[in-house]
Amino acid sequence: MHHPLRSHHLLTNFGGNIRFRPQHFYAPTSEREVLDILDRHANAKIRVVGSLHSWSPAVVTDDTLVDMRHFRSVQLQRSADGSLWATVGGGCRIKHVLRKLRLHRVTMPSIGLITAQTIAGAISTATHGSGKHSLSHYVDELRVAAYDPATGAARVVVLSDGDERRAGRCALGCMGIILSVRFRCIPLYDVAETIVACTTLDEVLEGEGRFPLQQFYLIPHLWSYLVQRRLVPREPQRTRPVFLGLYRAWWLLGIDIGLHLVIKLLVTGLGSPGATRWFYRHILTRLVVKNATVVDRSERMLVMAHDLFQHLEIELFVPARNIRRAAQFVRSVIEVFAGTMSVSTGEILSDLAGIGMVEELRHHHGSYTHHYPITFRRVLVDDALIAMSAGTDEPWYALSFITFAQPHDRFLVLATFLARAMARLFQARLHWGKVFPLDGAEIEGSYPRLATFRTICRQFDPKGVFRNTFTDRVLFGSE
Known about the structure:
Helices cover 32% and strands 21% of the residues. The protein has helices at 31-40, 94-102, 119-124, 162-168, 201-205, 241-270, 273-282, 298-301, 323-338, 347-355, 358-363, 409-426, 440-443, 450-460, 469-474; strands at 11-12, 19-20, 24-26, 46-49, 64-67, 74-78, 84-89, 106-107, 139-147, 154-159, 177-184, 186-187, 190-198, 215-218, 225-231, 293-297, 312-319, 374-379, 396-403, 429-430. The two termini are 36 Å apart.
């Protein structure tokens, strides 16, 4: 019998916006223990905790919480064609996976900005990088602890094909507990990156053919772009060690730490919207090393120390066909919130008039000055049922909005307005693992395979044990 490690312990997520106190807290060490926990709490509610880096309430439960920290093995197997396949425990952190794979000269097929996440947590919310599919898309097989619909007993199910695998690739924990995942590794590769300044979005997008891994930033209040143009070089050409070391030091000390300290000072220290706008208009781009190409390992170039400073984030996915209008809309909304533009003329007026949100935006005029660059990342279509970039025949752009302000109230007003308006105007979808102010009725038509996903969840969890208030609200609310 596996007893809880502790109960009634207050847990807080990375962003500080989610706090909850589960009654039971387990950290099983074997699949048998996981099944015992499921059987013991078959009439309760069970959620799984990873690194707590998510900003959404997907993890919250006041009943039973399972920590898969002991499921962190990384096993490699070579197939007949010479490919290496990795089977990774659900509780293994991505940074640990990358280290293990590097010893065998291979890496993961997709890498997101954050490596502190567990592999199961990253998959459950379709974590992504830029220029590729999300990590979920590449998962070939999942071992999941769930319930037998005939007997009600806990069992281990292997998802290796069809819609069951597509559902498991991004399920927010609603299909059971992920014990392990399997994916094909790819050879280690380098990434060449050059940061350039662009005046228009068209100029940015013209570079995608040559720089398929690029990501870019819309600089608020300046309204131009900084672009990390990235590609995999055809020939090995690693940057000289001395310059590479200096570049890494500049990025860590100047961007990951220095820039964020300045932003925190502007926002929480000075608290001056005017100073924030002045900084972005006149200073930021001068601090960035531009037009110098640096080549380094992919797992260094594609990630950031995104978790050094507590922040709150919402991320909206927009179909590629709508990205130009969406970017202009974002600029206009942020300017209205900052008080530097009125809602009187132009495209934003006609857009909002069509969905009855003009007066709502006018009400927020001058209420909040956004203080962080908006990140754009291109994500290819995922072969999953409810991944944010699934179910279409075109890529998506993920737009990330971040705040360091405390309290978060004014940012959340902006985030909610953008989410509601962009869902209606541009068919935007919200990242499941970040701030999620919409409900099921507002996203019902966004996912063509949502009904199939619900059916499969009921097969694996007939009593809804693996669901919580959040998943009921956003995924099952219409049932």
